[in-house]
Amino acid sequence: MPERLPRIFVTRQIPPTHLQRLQREADCVIWPGQLPPSRADLLAGVAGCDGILSLISDRIDAAVFEAAGPQLKVVSNYAVGVNNIDLAEAARRGVAVGNTPDVLTDATADIAVALLLAAARRLQASGDSVRQGEWKTWEPTGWLGCDLVGRTLGIVGLGRIGAAVARRLVGGWGMRLLYSSRSDKRIEGLETARRVTLDELLAESDFVSLHTDLTEETRGLIDARRLALMKPTAVLVNTSRGGVIDQSALVEALRGGRPLAAGLDVTDPEPLPPDHPLVTLPNCIILPHIGSATVATRDAMAEICVDNLLAGLAGQPLRCPCS
Ligand code: NAP
């Protein structure tokens, strides 16, 4: 009797090249929808699987591990953030978990800088005024924004993406760098960075960019009290996870003009309902979580994701383990 191929539930179509490599080695069921599988579809889809290729919109918790069964060996997340996965439960069951670090650092850092510039220079509201036929003339005092050169940048979480954003803005715009992180950092090209407390960072920075992972410790980290510490001229950017900011507090803070503006690639939930106050505020720019959305990056993520799965199925160390 030939050995059965391992079974994999893939929760969405990902770039095809590497998926085809996986399909040669495993019996893959690929969720065909553009939207994530419902909870019931996820639980049914993973039943009897040896591996799961998941996205951040899939909550991989004890119920999913239970539904999959004891033969489940590996969960490979098509993301660097793994806040959608119960890592403790995976460890308890001996299931390996992989993610896709590094390859998305530059693309995500680019989006953070784009948001920072867009929020500082009011690109969305001013561009909308052109589209709506409201542009009458060059205005000496119209659409004034803030400069970046020589200003203070505060990076919350100076990890891979935080450091890549800092390099761009320190090297390109000559910004002074403050950071808050759990540990001291010595990073080439960022030797002048000063580690401060989060409260100091918020009070002193002209631009604040969030780059922590979402954990129980960082959920709601930027709350009403901390937003009130920010300068009334400051810009807040979030490309980490929506849950790092208390969004109700952000709505109130932006309505009160402190901070002056925000640029968000991530929200909680995703998507935000179109009538959510954050969507309608003129000083808030929201993107549909496109940090890693370049052709090359998504392809590189697919490569790691498939490598992780194949290693996990073979009982070997994952290329990028996160458990
Ligand atoms: P990383 O290298 O692990 O960086 C995370 C940083 O957060 C680390 O420097 C860590 O500090 C810091 N941190 C963790 N908990 C903290 C806390 N309580 N207070 C202060 N700092 C804390 O990860 P990465 O590759 O840069 O990715 C960061 C996050 O970006 C991911 O987890 C993901 O959620 C998000 N992301 C979003 C997109 C997007 O499309 N928008 C794309 C990729 C990633 P230590 O080093 O001191 O531990």
Produce the secondary structure layout.
Elements (H helix, E strand, L loop, with lengths): L6 E4 L5 H10 L1 E4 L8 H8 L4 E4 L7 H7 L5 E4 L9 H6 L3 E3 L6 H16 L2 H9 L20 E5 L3 H14 L2 E5 L13 E2 L2 H7 L2 E4 L13 H4 L7 E4 L8 H9 L5 E4 L12 H4 L3 E3 L8 H19 L10
Parallel strand pairs: 1-2, 1-3, 3-4, 4-5, 6-7, 6-9, 7-8, 9-10, 10-11, 11-12
The site of NADP nicotinamide-adenine-dinucleotide phosphate has 30 residues, from α5 and α7.
How many structural units, i.e. domains?
Answer: 2
What is the typical, i.e. mean, pLDDT?
97
SSE string, helix = H, strand = E?
Answer: EHEHEHEHEHHEHEEHEHEHEHEH
User: Mind telling me the CATH superfamily name of the largest domain?
Assistant: NAD(P)-binding Rossmann-like Domain
Which topology of the largest domain does CATH recognise? Rossmann fold
- Specify the number of helices: 12
Q: What is the share of helical residues?
A: 25-40%
| Rg calc | 21 Å
> Termini separation (Å)?
35 Å
Overall CATH class of the largest domain: Alpha Beta
Number of strands: 12
- What composes the largest sheet? 7 strands, parallel
> What would you call the shape?
globular
Bound ions, cofactors and other small molecules, one mention each: NADP nicotinamide-adenine-dinucleotide phosphate
Strand order across the largest sheet:
8-7-6-9-10-11-12
CATH architecture of the largest domain: 3-Layer(aba) Sandwich
Beta strand %: 5-15%
Unreliable stretches? none
Estimated structural class: alpha/beta
